[in-house]
Amino acid sequence: MVLLFLAGVGVLALRHLRDSESLLVEGCTPWQTYKASLDNNTHKISYGSMDLQFNDRTEFPFFYRTVPNDYSQFSGMIQLLNFFRWNWVGILTSDDEGDQRGSEQLKKEIIRSGSCVAFLEAIPLALFLTDQQIARLDWIFDMIQKSLANVVIMYSTSSYLTSLICNKGHQKFKLAGKQWVLSTAVSSLNELHSIHIPRCVIFNGSLGFAIPKGEILGFKDFLYNIYPSTFPDPFIVQSLWREAFFCELPYRPLPTGFPECTGKERLSDFSVSEFDVDNFRLTYSIYLSVYAMAHALKNMFTVKHQHLEHRIEFLPWKLNQYIKRVRFKTPNGHEILFNENGEVPTTYDIINWVMFSGWAYTSINVGSFNPSAPKDQQLTMNQSAIFWNPHFKQTPRSVCSESCASGYRKVFDKQKPICCFDCFPCAEGEYSNRTDAENCLKCPEDQWPNEKKVECITRLIEFLSYTDPLGAIFTSTAIVFSIVNALVLSIFIKYRDTPLVKANNQELSYILLVFLMLSFLCSLMFIGYPGNVTCLIQQVAFGIIFTIVVSSVLAKTIIVLIAFNATKPRSKLSKWVGTRVSSYLLFLCSSGEVVICIIWLLISPPFPEYDTQSEPGKMILKCNEGSTIAFYSMIGYIGFLAFLSFIVAFLARNLPDSFNEAQHITFSMLVFCSVWISFIPAYLSAKGKYMVAVEIFAILASSAGLLGCIFIPKCYIILFRPDLNTRGHLIEKQNFNKPK
């Protein structure tokens, strides 16, 4: 209410000083009007204009202001949004050119800070709206009501916007369900105090930036003792009385329809909420502007007087240097000076507009913003002092997408703003221990994410142990087969003088049984903790033992062929009968495997390693073969000998021998080859400890096949059909099988 009055008094005072064309104190007029009033010969000290355009000292060298520019207000708003984590907001402005330019700049700053703007709409400021403008206004209000943005920034240099929204928007639209953030002009002008629309609760709980209050000594008493009759021209208080008391003074009245004032009206009749005379905002800024100009003029005239210039000629351009050097303190200790941008460094109050009485708004100071302070100390908020709109049960939230919890990451859509995203769980082996993580982190090799993927925990170390059910089964099986093998060997030793044992190369049978038993036992080396020594010898021992087993079978088969063909007339093989052919064959075939194993151990020996890929959350401790080529060369060599044994045994299956082993060897080699051919794809597809299990199974199955197919039938004859284990039966069988 008092702004116009104080501005008028201040400007009149200055104009009486000297030249009314060169000195002005200006406020928050629309941009077009304001810029048009500026020229290079006019010194202006604005008490309310915060437009960034006036920072250009080249175009506006004589422009000063007692308020900061809009950029500092934008910084404060962005910090306020970040403080409450509001990253999805709308902006409402007027159709004034300066307002639209400022709101566009505010939008850019908000986006640059990492937040997003849901909408930016301009409302016409005309007092009388056309039908088209009303329809546009209704559309804007409807869009605001439906928007997911719960926070709306009202940026304008016109305080009329609040009245317009209350008049047009509070009945049809539920705009009270939004959290409003008001710009400096709206909050500092205390326009909300003058809203007389019952139950217009749209701005209840809103926050606003405002120029800080300041005390003007003696001004309270001056205002309380104002009478229109005290002024030579009462027209200066005409508008003040009209706005305050809704009446017309008899001095040049306007046809407003208000009754004539009685003369008994006093400003002291108003409550503090309606007319706060203890602290002023823009009124105080006007006070500073007038005082700054007065100090500059005083300093200039003082200097001229000291130089004995009796005739003082006022040159506007000379005043500029004195305004730059203005420096004084207000009665409350506030130091006033202009910086390089022509601005008085100051702070912002953050106020909370609250409606307690049902129609009157009251402002509560809940924080401040100091643009000159260090970045992390600029904003201070007393959150407990804020009264939020009753629509919100707690601090309002305004986000396009809810935060991604720990264990999730944000996935952005290129078609949407950066604040709108989806939340996806972290991939296997990754975690995130903070909200709104854009990328998940990988755990170290020896760790794995917990179930919620919010932290890494130590992986479970696993290997095929003796206590593992699978390991226990294999261990029991190996021991049982070893015992059976030992029993068979003992039977052959006990009945070594019988024709059946003698007829099937007694020494090779002993060697074969001993190494079959070793093959059963060597499978135990694959069970238990894989250490350095274990990894070195398990594959080599398996390869050499199995090579000797298969070589023994091959030698037995070849000896059968030699013995049969040696009985033919003039046979050259007769000289090999009774010699150490079997021993030579066994040594020769085994030597190849030994050479492969030695080269393997020298070039790339096996070693223990942790497999972190096979099973999630576990580390499989296993033996790495070192050289895959050497490993499969060893297996391939055994396979070659087995296949050769199968071919030779197959060719000798029908030889006329009562105790011919060829048929049994053929079947045993068929079983052996089937097992190891199946082993290769199974081994390649298995992971972790199951690779070891596949190899153990192949060892046990193939060894059991050899034992069962070659020796079990002989043990049956020895133990249960001794009538077949005689020399007479052997001769009779030979004569029966001779070709006629």
Task: Give a summary of the structure in a few sentences.
This protein is of the alpha/beta class.
What report would you give on this structure?
The protein is α/β, with parallel strands linked by helices. It folds into three domains: 1-226 and 267-385, Rossmann fold, CATH 3.40.50.2300; 408-458, no CATH class; 469-734, Up-down Bundle (Rhopdopsin 7-helix transmembrane proteins), CATH 1.20.1070.10. Strands 5-4-6-7-8-11-12-13 form an eight-stranded mixed β-sheet, with helices on both faces. β4, α4 and β5 form a beta-alpha-beta unit. α15 (532-566) packs antiparallel against α16 (581-603) and α16 packs antiparallel against α17 (628-651). The longest helix has 35 residues, at 532-566.
Span between termini: 141 Å
**Strands of the largest sheet, in order across it?**
5-4-6-7-8-11-12-13
Mind telling me the CATH class of the largest domain? Alpha Beta
CATH homologous group name of the largest domain: Response regulator
Q: How large is the radius of gyration?
A: 51 Å
Say how many strands there are: 22
- Ranges with pLDDT <50 over ≥5 residues? 1-24, 735-740
Which CATH architecture of the largest domain would you pick?
A: 3-Layer(aba) Sandwich
- Assign the CATH topology of the largest domain: Rossmann fold
Average pLDDT reading: 81
**Number of domains in the coordinates?**
3
Shape: rod-shaped
Question: Count the helices. How many?
Answer: 20
The helix content is: 40-55%
Structural class: alpha/beta
Fraction of residues in β-strands: 5-15%
Describe the largest sheet. Answer: 8 strands, mixed
Keywords: Cell membrane, G-protein coupled receptor, Glycoprotein, Membrane, Receptor, Signal, Transducer, Transmembrane, Transmembrane helix
Subcellular location: Cell membrane
Main location: membrane
Membrane topology: Multi-pass membrane protein
